[in-house]
Structure formats: C-alpha cells, structure tokens
Amino acid sequence: MSAILECRNLSKSFGGVKALDGVNLSIEPGRVVGLLGPNGSGKTTLIKLANGLLTPSDGELLIAGMKPGADTKAIVSYLPDRTYLPDWMSVRQMLDFFEDFYADFQREKAVEMLGRLSIDERMHLGQMSKGTREKVQLILVMSREAGLYLLDEPIGGVDPATRDFILDTIIRNYNPSASVIISTHLIADVEAVLDEVIFINGGRIVLQKSVDEIREAQGKSVDAYFREVFKC
C-alpha cells in the first residue's frame, strides 16, 4: 500500500530558524493520525507544506506520490488553524463556494449536518460564535470525499461540548479509505479517536507509533507518555 503522505529529509527554514529539520515519515491510507507537539514544534509548518502553502527549503514532501500542487488539492481537504473565510459570507455562499471549487464536495452531507445543529443557511460567518464558526468550517472540510484530511488545531479554544461534536464529526464523516491528520497539543481530548501518533518537537520527529504500541510498551496513555517525553 503506497503512502498517502511521505516526507523525505524534509526541512523548512524561516530566515536562520529551522522550523522543520530533516523530517522523515510515511502515513498510510485509512489511518487517523495525531500530529502532537508543543506550540512552536513545527506542526503547522508541516501541514502547510503538505497543503502547498509553503515550499520546502530542503528534501521533499509527497502526497500520493506527487509534489503538492493543483493535482494534490483535489486529494487534500484542509482545515487551517484560523478562520479563512470572510465574515460577510453566508452559510449558503460557503456551500456554493465549496461546491464550485471541489468536485468531491457532498453538499447534501453538509446540509444534513448543518441542519442537525439548526444552523440557518442565511446566517453570515460574522454573526456566529467562535464555536459555531469552528463547526461550520469543519463541516465544510469533512463533507469532501478527500484522500487526506489535514486538520490544524481543530479543537483549540472551543468548549468541551464543541470539542466532542468536532471529534464525532471527524470520525463519522471522513472517507474510510483516506487518512486524517489532526494537529493538536490537547492530547487527552483526541487520544480516543487516534490510530497512531507522531510526536514532533523542535522541528524533528521524536517518534511515530501506533496508539496500541505505546499503551502496550509503556503501560500508559498517549497523553501520559507525551507528558513524560516533553516534560520540562
């Protein structure tokens, strides 16, 4: 089975600072992967490289064997760590935008999820609470039949009930032959949905293992092991 995402000696520098330093990793299809590390560890840089928003300083990153570009945008569904849609857009306009832009967007699925939350399609983004914004953007992203979902801090800064909804939405709606990468530092909240984890710190991969391997080998949760590995 060929990797959906592969990094080969991948490095990225900003000025004299290395955000990623010689990263090697491979992610197979059909996995839910936690990209876990402290703030500033390189998580967002790696996700932006995978989405083609940044270019490597050295090495390469491949999506389904291709360098990020027009072809991989049809494969990757990306949720950035900040709101990127303008406040003036209504829910209906966002649905139209995704339907126009992505051939794999399933509008009926998105409308059904929005309906469960009683979110009116006439509502504008600027009228929504932070939690509702997060939910709407996640619904849009998860309503694509993508090969790789890149979710950058999808549960950061929202209340526990919203976190539960977001994680449930991810697990119930991703294409099962695809992979999901969830970038977060909130390990305990996501651990139950993960198949494997990648620990990253200082731009380097510290480990990549399945959740079961960590629990069996260490006799503790991923969250407890993470705290041990990254203790100050």
Mean pLDDT: 90
Strand line-up across the major sheet: 5-6-7-3-8-9
CATH topology heading of one domain: Rossmann fold
Task: Tell me the strand percentage band.
Answer: 25-35%
Rounded Rg: 18 Å
Could you say which structural class the secondary elements and strand pairing correspond to? alpha/beta
CATH architecture of one domain: 3-Layer(aba) Sandwich
Globally, the shape reads globular
Poorly predicted runs of 5 or more residues: none
In DSSP terms (H or I, runs of 4 or more residues), the helix count works out at: 9
**Residues in helices, as a percent range:** 25-40%
Distance between the termini: 39 Å
Q: Mind telling me the CATH class of one domain? A: Alpha Beta
Number of β-strand runs: 9
**H/E series, N to C?**
EEEHEHEHHHEHEHEEHH
Structure overview:
By secondary structure, the protein is of the alpha/beta class. It has a domain of 162 residues: 3-Layer(aba) Sandwich (Rossmann fold), CATH 3.40.50. It contains nine helices and nine strands. The strands form two sheets. It has a six-stranded mixed beta sheet, sandwiched between helices. The protein has a three-stranded antiparallel beta sheet with strand order 2-1-4, with helices on one face. Strand 1 and strand 2 form a beta hairpin. Helix 5 runs parallel beside helix 6. The longest helix has 14 residues. The protein is globular. The model has no long low-confidence stretch (mean pLDDT 90).
